[in-house]
Amino acid sequence: MIETQKSSTGLQQVTSTDISTHCSKCGEKILNVMTADENKVYHPHCFNCSDCGKTLAGGFFYKSKNIKSNELTSTTRNSVSESIRFCETCYKKIAPKCARCHNIIEASSIVWEDKKFHESCFTCCGVDKDDIQCRKPMKDESVYPLNDKWYCKNCFDKLDTGISAASRDILTQKCFKCYKEFSPGSLVSEYKGDYYHPTCFVCSQCNTSIANKSFYHQAKSDDRPSEMKFLCENCHIKNAQECAECKNKIISGEAIGFEGKQYHRSCFTCQNCKNEIGTSHFFKTKDDKYICQHCSLQQQQDTHSK
Fold it and tell me: Where do the LIM zinc-binding domain residues begin and end (predicted)?
């Protein structure tokens, strides 16, 4: 990306007192009018745009500080021994543009993640509950990115992402998965008192990060974190068991198991009153249906009364 500065030059009449009146480009003597730049003098027609050849004498132009060979046109490559200058039209073709406002960057800029920004554009993207933008200047500040936006620490910690900026006390901790320390300004995910790098807090099946997503956890005895496995929503649905009653997947909520079968709690109901049985006492009928204790007692009373 080309870095430039905007400059201007005027036309001067050559006088007999001018010590050096030889054009710095063509080497020929300047007899009448000249223009100057960087302590060098030129014929007006020799002081031209490095791309289109238009004269730049007497007006504004853009002068590069550095330039890469793959950014040069065939015309410009022939002029690499001279300073690279552009008229406004040619400069707009190759000028760096701000990644936020998309306008040309003419002065100093800030580079972040291989993108350039005006200093006035590189500000916090945070918005408070009243829809007021933070706009804190991020130059020389720690930057916390999320979904192609960037935030100051205060605004980032207010986001409901499952990720927080590493505070000073967290820097003394280690990632629960990779056991590496957290560096200043890094992002941290926390679950049940344990801290993870977002790249370490992943689905145990597909290995995608679940740091700012809904997830499910599976654990062995005593819910010990060392044995805990996390599943993203998609993998959880794939692995979910089928309800023996409605045949749909049991994705969330409490499941009731009986005789090797799983049921939604709302599907495990009494055949008579249709109320949920849950973990209460119940009886199995001859036709493999379930009846709650209350209805069973009622049936017995009705039988005895006949």
Answer: 21-97, 173-233, 241-302
**pLDDT single digits (tens) 126-156:** 888 888 889 888 877 777 777 778 888 888 8
pTM as predicted: 0.37
Count of residues making up the chain: 306
CATH number, span 3-94 = 2.10.110.10
- Give 161's contacts (C-beta < 8 A, 6+ positions apart): 146, 211, 212
The three-state (H, E, C) secondary structure of 52-105, written as one string: CCCECCCCEEEEEEECCHHHCCHHHHCCCCCCCEECHHHHHHHCCECCCCCCEC
Q: DSSP code of 180?
A: P
Query: What contacts 260, CB < 8 A, 6 or more positions away?
Result: none
pLDDT value for 146: 77
At 85-103, the pLDDT tens digits run: 888 888 888 778 888 888 8
